[in-house]
Amino acid sequence: MEYPIKSTGPGVTRQVLAENSDLMLVAFRFETGAKGDLHNHPHVQATYVESGRFAFFVEGTEHELGTGDSLIIPSQANHSCVCLEAGTLIDTFTPRRADFL
User: Fold this and answer.
1) pLDDT tens column, 47-98
2) Which domain holds residue 45?
3) Are 84 and 76 in contact (CB under 8 A)?
């Protein structure tokens, strides 16, 4: 199944790559300077930096990640990110983010 690319804000797009009720795989593409606003959700999230450089903020702690790095974001943790160098994040969510469909 092919999922559409959707704009999620200035300089950011999201595309579901695969999903079932237990797990979802999503690509987020960022332009330099674009932001993922502060939010939380009940899903556990694993983020893999396919390309680019990002500053993540998880519960007030900063993590700078580059190509090949990854990070786990616990359920309900407040988190955001800023793209330092244009790139793509590959995120997994468990369970599936029904709001992305």
Assistant:
1) 999 999 999 999 999 999 999 999 999 999 999 999 999 999 999 999 999 9
2) 5-100
3) no
